[in-house]
Design goal:
Layout (H helix, E strand, L loop, with lengths): L2 H4 L4 E8 L14 H6 L10 E3 L5 E3 L3 H8 L3 E8 L7 H10 L10 H9 L9 E4 L15 E3 L15 H14 L7 H20 L2 H4 L10 H14 L6 E7 L7 H25 L6 E6 L19 E7 L5 E3 L19 E2 H12 L5 H4 L11
């Protein structure tokens, strides 16, 4: 490893597949007769899938991921979830975001990570989120996160005010508006993280101007978010955690072609993103974590699939040790939990590996416990 590579801080990109991605139609157990038996309406036909090995396949619409798989840069975690899945989008996502399965958590796991990276808040763009609101995973009082709701080119706080003195006056006015009121945690939160976020907006707006690339990103929402991630990463602003989402994968009805359209956008966006980073020699310190709050029911409902339990989680990147991790849960009716695949890998195990082997942190206080760590990172 060169001195240049050694000096690069590890970066984590999280891509949230919002809405409950269908595990069975994402990593297909194509040789298992129970797959076809249970998927009369939405099953993937043999000629519409790409075999990974003797037991697993991807649907054709996820073709870009096959290249990562062939290069041993894609890790697939099987049967991911937690005990007693509530099958509620909101509660399940809350559990993934806070690592609190038995109570309502107050701190996001990635917010804790940011606090550990930058305890003095010296860099208000240590974490950057692409989406209309702050994801719970990043929300911790007094931990700044820059939220980007649209294209970076149009992003910034009061971008039409060019005079620096005037901008500072407006920022000062804003901070007084949100001065902490005694006994008001909400106002205190706004008064600190809100103002930090505005500072972050001013910093991030330089990224597009520093960005030059020959890579053409697809004109999809997720590809454009990933382009924004690339712009900020390549601007060397010190951002260590990126967050974005795509969806909704909530395919109760009309799963075909909904699922295919969503995954086409995700995988083509990821292909452009990694090509872009590699072209700039900036991919070696980046990994991408893709997760969904739960999988979907084994038997389809005639048009789609309903909320399930266990799902698949993916990690890709040049420092990833590709392959299968964990076991595909049994499709046998006697082994299902209320008709769903039974989780056999706790999601906090995946977080723990990333925190320990990638971010160089003790996972236990961040994920609220000690979990096995699958070895998917070099």
């Amino acid at each position: 490893m060169s001195a240049t590579q050694q000096s690069k801080d590890p970066v984590l990109v999280v891509l949230q597949l919002t809405g409950g991605n269908d595990y069975l139609n994402t990593v297909i157990p194509y040789n298992n007769g129970l797959y076809k038996d249970n998927r009369k309406a939405v099953g993937i036909a043999d000629n519409d899938m790409i075999h990974l090995d003797q037991a697993h396949a991807l649907p054709n619409y996820m073709a870009p991921l096959k290249k990562f798989w062939d290069d041993d840069k894609l890790a697939i975690m099987h049967g991911v979830g937690y005990l007693d899945s509530p099958r509620s989008h909101f509660r399940s996502m809350d559990i993934w975001h806070t690592c609190e399965a038995d109570k309502v958590g107050t701190e996001g796991w990635l917010g804790r990570v940011v606090r550990e990276i930058d305890p003095r808040k010296e860099n208000v763009v240590t974490a950057v989120s692409f989406g209309p609101c702050l994801f719970r995973a990043l929300a911790v009082p007094n931990v700044p996160v820059a939220c980007v709701a649209g294209p970076l080119e149009h992003y910034g706080f009061l971008p039409t005010i060019r005079d620096q003195a005037q901008r500072l006056k407006v920022l000062e006015t804003f901070s007084h508006m949100y001065q902490p009121i005694e006994g008001s945690g909400v106002m205190e939160y706004l008064g600190t993280t809100g103002l930090d976020g505005l500072k972050g907006a001013d910093i991030l707006k330089v990224a597009p101007g520093l960005y030059k690339s020959d890579v053409k990103y697809p004109n999809t929402t997720i590809a454009q978010k990933l382009k924004g991630v690339a712009q900020v990463h390549l601007a060397n602003l010190g951002t260590r955690v990126f967050y974005c989402d795509h969806g909704s994968f909530d395919s109760h009805a009309g799963q075909n072609p909904l699922h295919g359209n969503l995954w086409t956008a995700v995988t083509e966006g990821l292909e452009a993103f990694m090509t872009d980073l590699r072209a700039h020699n900036a991919a070696d310190n980046v990994i991408v974590l893709m997760f969904s709050e739960f999988g979907r029911r084994v038997r389809d409902n005639g048009s789609g699939t309903d909320h399930g339990a266990a799902g698949a989680t993916f990690v890709l990147g040049d420092k990833v040790k590709g392959g299968h991790y964990g076991e595909y849960p049994s499709l046998d009716a006697n082994k299902l939990v209320q008709g769903d695949l039974n989780p056999n890998m706790d999601f906090r195990s995946i977080y723990s590996t990333i925190l320990d082997k990638w971010m160089g942190m003790n996972p236990a206080p961040i994920v609220n416990g000690t979990y096995e760590k699958p070895a998917f990172l070099h």
